[in-house]
């Protein structure tokens, strides 16, 4: 079943500026862990951020969980965003806050800013946060400030925070780019395992082709805003990679 359908997606950041995405189409099924690969500047992050309208498309169609994303009013968009867990390249944690409070902030879409400000979270949310912190291996770091953690630990906090939304889709924007190779592999394995366990599909913008091939069942390749490949990971050939990365200066 299709969770996400993107058709002829186009993006310009200004009326007279260059087209960043040039008619991208693809579908994400309910059991997919899909990698979006391509050189820097190919449009991967822009595409990911269009899905929940952190970037406004200038053309095309995005249907997420049966809803036309581009047609949603602000209140409807806020409601839809509750269903989309996002894991960022820069972690996007609040450094002065504890690990627990950062994870609980994933419930903001349900509790509101005022309740969050005074840390008035329901007991079930606290229990849920403790469960996910255990799941990502951070039980011993619950009360630490976020800025006291390593990069890999900070990304694990980001994963737990995204899961607090009870998402129906995970969007991963270069989740390993700030991590060393060993930690990158551990983080990807963790995300893939949790996504499978919860039955949540994932769309992952990733620069590391080897990680994409190792952990993702499908790959979409972009080059300069144009789709160059779309298929099962096992069908990706060296000639496909040469075409996707033809314009990258090595």
UniProtKB/TrEMBL annotation:
Single GO molecular function: ABC-type phosphonate transporter activity
Enzyme class at the top of the EC tree: hydrolase
Protein name: Phosphonate ABC transporter ATP-binding protein
GO CC list: membrane
Originating species: Roseovarius spongiae
CDD domains in the cross-refs: ABC_PhnC_transporter
Organism placement in taxonomy: Bacteria, Pseudomonadati, Pseudomonadota, Alphaproteobacteria, Rhodobacterales
Gene name tied to this protein: phnC
NCBIfam families: ABC_phnC
Gene3D superfamilies, alphabetized: P-loop containing nucleotide triphosphate hydrolases (3.40.50.300)
């Amino acid at each position: 079943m299709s969770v996400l359908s993107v058709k002829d997606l186009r993006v310009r950041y200004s009326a007279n500026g260059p087209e960043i995405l040039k008619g991208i189409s693809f579908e994400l099924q309910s059991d997919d862990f899909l990698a979006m690969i391509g050189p820097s500047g190919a449009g991967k992050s822009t595409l990911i951020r269009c899905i929940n309208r952190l970037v406004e498309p200038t053309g095309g169609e995005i249907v997420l969980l049966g809803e036309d994303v581009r047609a949603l009013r602000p209140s409807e968009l806020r409601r839809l965003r509750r269903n989309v867990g996002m894991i960022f390249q820069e972690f996007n944690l609040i450094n002065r806050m504890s690990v627990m409070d950062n994870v609980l902030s994933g419930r903001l879409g349900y509790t509101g800013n005022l309740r969050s400000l005074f840390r008035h979270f329901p007991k079930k949310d606290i229990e849920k946060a403790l469960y996910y912190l255990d799941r990502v291996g951070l039980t011993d770091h619950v009360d630490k400030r976020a800025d006291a953690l390593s990069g890999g630990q900070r990304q694990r906090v980001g994963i737990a925070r995204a899961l607090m939304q009870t998402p129906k889709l995970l969007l991963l924007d270069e989740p390993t780019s700030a991590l060393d190779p060993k930690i990158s592999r551990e983080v990807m394995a963790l995300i893939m395992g949790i996504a499978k366990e919860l039955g949540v599909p994932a769309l992952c913008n990733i620069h590391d082709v080897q990680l994409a091939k190792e952990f993702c069942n499908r790959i979409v390749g972009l080059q300069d805003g144009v789709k160059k490949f779309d298929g099962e990971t096992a069908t990706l050939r060296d000639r496909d990679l040469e075409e996707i990365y033809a314009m990258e200066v090595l």
